Structures are given as C-alpha cells and as structure tokens.
C-alpha cells in the first residue's frame, strides 16, 4: 500500500499504476521524464528541464549522444550477451583501455557500484587470508558519512546508520573512522590490532559524494598511502561516483596525488548503461577461477557502451571541458553564497561534482531548493539534508551552466 505523494495531476494516472505495482523504495518527484537530448530533458507534459543530475552522475555524455547511440546499436545487432563462459572481445578491449588509462593492472566486470565494492571487499578478504597469512579476522576501515551501496556488505561498509537500520545483523569485519582525520586511522589500526583481528584494508571515497560532496584532503590521503605502504594494509578507493572524468581528471585519485591498490567504478563508466568494474594492481590480483562471478558482468553490450564513453572522453576534450565548466560553476555558486551569507556555508567540489552547503541553522533544506528549481526547469539532486549537488553531463556547455545558475538564482530569490 502506498500513500499518495503526488502533488500535481501531470501524468497522475500513469503514476498511480506505477505506485500500485512498483515497490515503494524511493521518494520520487511527481514528474515523468519522457525524452532527452544533450543536457535537456522533457517530461510527459512537454515541460523542458536543464539536467544538472545526469541520472545521478551517470549520463557522462548526456542524453542521446550520437556516438553512444551508434556504438550500442551496432553492438546489439551483432551480439549483446553470451556469459563469461566464453571470451568477449569488447570486455578485453575495455579492460585494456581502463588499464592503459589508470594505475590498475587487472579488471573485474559486474553491473553496479555496490557489486563492484562487493568484489573489492571479497578481494581484500582473500588477500588477507592468503597473502597476509596471519589474518584470521581481517577488518576493513571505512569512513563515517561515506556511501558504498545497498547490498548487505556495502550498507555495512557505508558509515551512515540510517542505511543500516532494520537490516541487522550487519556483516562482520568493518569499523568506522571520521573522514579526513589521520589520527583516527592511526588509532583504529592500533586499537583493532588484537592477535588475528587486524586491519587489512581501508576503503574510502576520494571525494564523498552522497555524504555531502566532501573532497578528500591532500595531506590526509598522502599519509593514508604511507600508512598502507608501511603496514601492508590495502588502500581501496570507491570511485563509483567520481571516476571516469567527473572530477576533470580521469580518476578521482589523480586529484590527490596517490594511487590506490584497488578501486571501483560504475555510475559514469558506460554513460548510463548498467556496468560496474573493480580494478586492482598486479600484487593484489589474488582471485582464481570460481572465486567470483557475475552472469551479466562485462557483456558485449555494456562494454561497447563503456568503450565508446572512454574513447569520447579521450578524443573530444571532455576533461578540459569538465575543468573549465567546473570553475565556471563554482565561481557562480560562490557569488550566490556571498550574496546569501545567512543561507550558505560553503561551495566545494572538483570538476563537475560540486555542492553548495546550506548553513545548519538556516531554515532551508536541500530538498526545498531541489523542488523549487525543478518547478523552474532545473534538475538538481540533494546530497544529504543540507547540501545541493550539481553533477551535470560532462559535455555541458558554458551557456548551459549560466542558464542553470540563472534558474538557481531565481529559485533562491523566491525561497529567500
Ligand atoms: C552510487 C554509489 C554507489 C552504489 O552504486 P550502485 O550502482 O547504486 O550500486 C557506491 N559508492 C558510491 C561512492 C556511490 O556514489
């Protein structure tokens, strides 16, 4: 049973059917999006939106990108799925492209961010049991206010109790530390060191996305890398939201000047076609046949899409665009924060993942801003109750950034 959350009649009948038959796991906006092109979307009433959400940092090349359409059309005509019982040339080509454009040596493919993180968690545990032989009970440290997914292991890894509530018992072997706090890591490693119960991995986002668009500190990450080098603890980066050009670099870790031992990708990797990937360096490539698998993982269709996304990023100056548009966006957001000093705390982000934080004591929530902006034709996403997130397609133009921020200004003028 559902309670009606609809506030408008637009497409109401369709949405009543939807609510009757689809499980009620999302707080949805009363909008039905029907088509898209570039950074624009249209709903069933013909209303146009400028898309600063990109399917939650996923539609790297925007909507209806001709190169992506061609790649997936050609691939589905040829072959779309055969399973990993056989060699898949597109999967091999994609793995090669990722390895050539990152610090990784090997890739495992799956279908989502949570699955990629599950694979990373399993790899750390196998490494602990086989390489760090003394480890009976390997522990993975994760950060408070992190987000790593919705499976049981990944809600456990997620350092936010609201995602765990009512799903206990959680998976053993995780402990939490505050983000960007090196002494907390050092203390946790010492505290947990009891015989065979030891820290085997540190899993962390280079920039916390869902947790409020919080970039990692350079110095913190350098010291994290040093601790891992000195102790043999594995450093795992969850790049599900920040990887694949989102930050203006190919990978989030490039902003921090350190390389992880293992990292994961999903959201933007195939531009909106479901895919996940877990990458590792040669020294922690400990999986053997039968250790891990995914029926859909790395199928020809998803890999053809991801290959086209990576080729387009490489050949069409996308990273430069992300850097320039990100600067432009932050400059305009900072002007807004200055204009409303009682409303906003700060603007932060890298490339085209940015957030504006509302002051804790301001009577305004991120969702109010998002709803009002949507009425005015701009799609935004919250990142927690007090941060509004800006993650447009990476192909966004200078005019579209200005257009979006103009709408945001009108939105705030209405709300203030
Ligand atoms: C979205 C996200 C996930 C989960 O990805 P799914 O594809 O929804 O499973 C994991 N980690 C981070 C950092 C994310 O942003």
TrEMBL record:
Gene3D superfamilies: Aspartate Aminotransferase, domain 1 (3.90.1150.10), Type I PLP-dependent aspartate aminotransferase-like (Major domain) (3.40.640.10)
Keyword terms: Amino-acid biosynthesis, Aminotransferase, Arginine biosynthesis, Cytoplasm, Pyridoxal phosphate, Transferase
GO cellular component: cytoplasm
Metabolic or biological pathway: Amino-acid biosynthesis; L-arginine biosynthesis; N(2)-acetyl-L-ornithine from L-glutamate: step 4/4
Listed cofactors: pyridoxal 5'-phosphate
GO molecular function (one): identical protein binding
Sites where the protein binds N(2)-acetyl-L-ornithine: 150, 294
Reactions this protein catalyses: N(2)-acetyl-L-ornithine + 2-oxoglutarate = N-acetyl-L-glutamate 5-semialdehyde + L-glutamate
Subcellular compartments: Cytoplasm
Cofactor note: Binds 1 pyridoxal phosphate per subunit.
Catalytic class of the enzyme: transferase
N6-(pyridoxal phosphate)lysine modification, residue list: 267
Membrane-spanning intervals of the chain: none
Known EC number: 2.6.1.11
Major site of localization recorded for this protein: cytoplasm
Residues engaged in binding pyridoxal 5'-phosphate: 113-114, 147, 238-241, 295
Swiss-Prot/TrEMBL GO biological process terms: L-arginine biosynthetic process
Family (UniProt): Belongs to the class-III pyridoxal-phosphate-dependent aminotransferase family. ArgD subfamily.
Subunit and interaction comment: Homodimer.
Miscellaneous information on this protein: May also have succinyldiaminopimelate aminotransferase activity, thus carrying out the corresponding step in lysine biosynthesis.
Protein name: Acetylornithine aminotransferase
Native source organism of the sequence: Cyanobacterium stanieri (strain ATCC 29140 / PCC 7202)
